[in-house]
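Data availability (excerpt). The following record was deposited with the supplementary files.
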Amino acid sequence: MKKLIFILVISLILISCKETRYELNGFQVEKLGPNYYQLTINVEKSGVKSLYNVNIRYDPRELKIINIDKSIKDKLVNSNQIYITMNPNANYSSKVTVAGLEIKKFISNPFLWNKNASAAFTEPYKDNEFLIKKCEESNDKEVVILLQTGSEDQVYFDKCVIVEGKDEDGMIRSADRLVLELIGVFNG
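Predicted structure:
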């Protein structure tokens, strides 16, 4: 009986001590809450090196399996303007906006990429005068990133950068996978 109680106590301790911090290819990752992870990265601005914390929604270890076209990083780095667009008539919830914001906060961040990133739609929406940007308008200097649902969680290039999810949560996972690729988490 004492042996059974001892095993039960040890099991409960191990379950309650879930790993909340770990290192992934030189990046410190900490789970701060459900769907809330913080990465500590080294940045250099004006010749001064420092540590900088960035947040994503999903555990980077889970995102590594999402397929991504490795050429996308160069396309974004070499551009002057980035447009994050979606179809306004696709009946998406606010989660799609979250996916776009996940990308924008990294691309626009002066400590990371410091690129101009603007929201757009692929087609007119009601009587509003939102910016319209389609994949066909993407070029070397102005890159369009399209958020859409599809057959799998993935990031690929087909006339523009496509951040695709099986569902809206998948779009957020794919957006997080893209930003991890941009900061070099999986290059190690």
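Summary of structural features: The first strand starts at residue 21 and ends at 24.
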